[in-house]
Design a protein that fits this description.
With about 300 residues, this protein is α/β, with parallel strands linked by helices. The chain has helices at about 15-30, 35, 45-55, 60-65, 70-75, 100-110, 145-155, 175-180, 180-190, 215, 220-225, 230-235, 240-250, 270-295, and strands spanning about 5-10, 40-45, 120-125, 130-135, 165, 170-175, 195-205, 250-255. Strands 1, 2, 3, 4, 5, 6, 7 and 8 form an 8-stranded mixed beta sheet that branches. Helix 1 packs antiparallel against helix 4 (about 60-65), helix 1 packs across helix 14 (about 270-295) and helix 3 runs antiparallel to helix 7 (about 145-155). The longest helix is centred in the C-terminal third of the chain and has 25 residues, at about 270-295.
Length: about 300
């Protein structure tokens, strides 16, 4: 049976650099560009933006790393209102979307989903309809939507960024539905390639395993939960991994680990933290690299 290769990328803010680090090493080991090797891409938030770069612009892994450079991260996270006198009770999103959209325009210009060279699916969530939205490059309803709008919508994380508007839809980060979108991608790929054997590589952005104080949590309100990583708890992806392993079987590989010394916050772009994130990606390669190459050859 012929094989098709699926790449699923999680969201995770600046921690997506660990994903990119792994992809760079994988590309070197395979001797072929990532966008050439895979037949279907699915992603959430930062992972979705990387998938769009691979599918629409056919970026190399090095070019993806450039898209997530320190300079671009600074632009994406400008105009913070977080450190206001109201602290955690700020009345507006932490960042405005202008900087993020500027970076997306610099890399994607006026490209639309219809320009994807390989099928790609991007996860978001419609807050008015209270339903997931899977932007598929092969769906006539979405093919004329700009990559800038899709990238903005999939990464519009509540608290961090404003809700994104695409047409008459008001959208937020797909992590609300599935930060680990592998099952969404697998179902779509099965429909697209019904007579093929699917091999699925899924790459995460690290898991926060810091225990919370159960007794103290009884008294937490909005501030207490925000201080203890409420959004991180919402995007926990280990259950999706367990289900994917049971459904897909031996043709599935999940690359991920606890965060270790990496800051659990999605927007810590300090040099110290970014270096730890890159080292986490290198550790993933040491642990999963050989198995990934085997899965894809």
């Amino acid at each position: 049976m012929n094989k098709k290769y699926i790449l699923s990328l999680d969201g995770g803010g600046v921690r997506t650099l660990a994903t990119i680090t792994f992809l760079r090493k994988l590309e070197n080991a395979l001797g072929i560009k990532i966008h050439e090797k895979f037949d279907y891409f699915v992603g959430t938030s930062a992972g979705a933006i990387s998938c769009l770069g691979l599918s629409v612009k056919r970026f190399s892994a090095n070019e993806l790393q450039g898209m997530w450079s320190n300079q671009n991260l600074k632009r994406i996270m400008k105009k913070s209102s977080w450190e206001s006198r109201f602290g955690l009770l700020q009345s507006k999103p932490k960042y405005q979307s202008d900087g993020k959209r500027t970076v997306l325009k610099n890399y994607f210009g006026k490209s639309t989903l219809s320009e994807a060279t390989k099928p790609v699916a991007v996860l978001s969530y419609d807050i008015q309809e209270r339903t997931p939205v899977l932007f598929r490059s092969y769906d006539p309803r979405y093919e004329d939507i700009s990559i800038v709008d899709v990238g903005d919508a999939t990464s519009a994380a509540p608290i961090y960024y404003p809700t994104a508007q695409v047409g008459d839809m008001f959208l937020i980060d797909g992590a609300i539905v599935a930060n680990h979108p592998v099952l969404h991608g697998y179902v779509e790929a099965k429909k697209m390639f019904p007579d093929h054997e699917l091999h699925v590589l899924s790459i995460g952005t690290g898991l926060s395993k810091r225990p919370l104080k159960g007794e103290a949590s009884k008294d937490w309100g909005i501030v207490g939960w925000m201080m203890h990583d409420l959004f991180g708890l919402m995007v926990e992806s280990s259950l999706d991994h367990e289900l994917a392993g049971k459904i897909i079987g031996s043709n599935y590989l999940r690359v991920n680990s606890p965060l270790g010394g990496v800051n659990r916050r999605l927007d810590d772009r300090s040099d110290h933290n970014l270096n730890k994130i890159i080292k986490m990606g290198e550790m993933w390669w040491d642990k999963f690299g050989e198995e990934a190459v085997k899965l894809l050859t």
